[in-house]
Amino acid sequence: MARDKVLRLAQIVSEYNDDMMIVHVVSLTHVQEELVKHCEEDYFTLLLRRFMMTIADKVAARFKCSALITGESLGQVASQTMEAMQVTGAVVDIPIFMPLIGMDKPDEVNYWTKRNIKVLEDTVTCLSDDAPDCGHCQSCFKKWCAFIVNGVDIRDRFKSSDIKESFKPFVEKYQKVLTEAKEKKDYSHYSPAKIDEILSAIEKL
Fold first, then answer.
1. Could you report the per-residue pLDDT of 115-156, keeping only the tens digit for each?
2. CB burial string 111-124: b at 16+ within 10 A, e below
3. pLDDT tens digit string along 2-42?
4. Considering the entire predicted model, what is its pTM?
């Protein structure tokens, strides 16, 4: 599934590329298996990303690429904090460009939809490998929120026939956390605008 996803996205992105696009597919199965055996669970994602950057650096050197471009967005997930990105980037000898570093999911959706580029609608960020866009996991919930605040309702893409019900645990979680943050004026994790944005998305379910 992961390989198919990469190839599908590469095909979409290639439509906006004036030059030929070559896709290099590297299997990480053996790396993942060894990490499961030998590292603490809390460090699994961080170490896996570090291996990914190491491999990308070697592929770049082999094909005389001058830089790497990644899709990190600061703070969007736990593995994309400044400290985490410092750890993963330390193994790379060439510049790393991060064009999305200051954007979150709604910002990204807004950017692409304004330009009528359908890349994001074809992405699969679902936590379920068996049912992409399952409509039951937190990743699907965040994806739906990102689209709905930009006026795009993608509920028909999910396997779940009732996302209002399947997203209920995440709705309750975010309503509680964000409402408390707003009342306490604690904006250490979410800005006031972001709080209003997510709560507004929840109301549209």
1. 777 665 566 667 665 666 888 888 888 888 888 887 888 888
2. ebbeeeeeebeebb
3. 677 788 878 877 877 777 788 888 988 899 999 989 988 88
4. 0.65
C-alpha span between 149 and 106 (Å, rounded): 7
Q: Which residues pair with 97 in a beta bridge?
A: 69
The Cα–Cα gap between 107 and 154 comes to 16
CA 136, CA 167: separation in Å to the nearest integer? 6
Q: What is the 3-state secondary structure (H, E, C) of the chain?
A: CHHHHHHHHHHHHHCCCCCCCCCCCCCCHHHHHHHHHHCCHHHHHHHHHHHHHHHHHHHHHHCCCCCEECCCCCCCCHHHCHHHHHHHHCCCCCCEECCCCCCCHHHHHHHHHHCCCCCHHHCCCCCCCCCCCCCCCHHHHHHHHHHHCCCCCCHHHCCCCCHHHHCHHHHHHHHHHHHHHHHHCCCCCCCHHHHHHHHHHHHCC
Q: What CA–CA distance (Å, rounded) separates 100 from 125?
A: 16
96, β-bridge pairs = 68
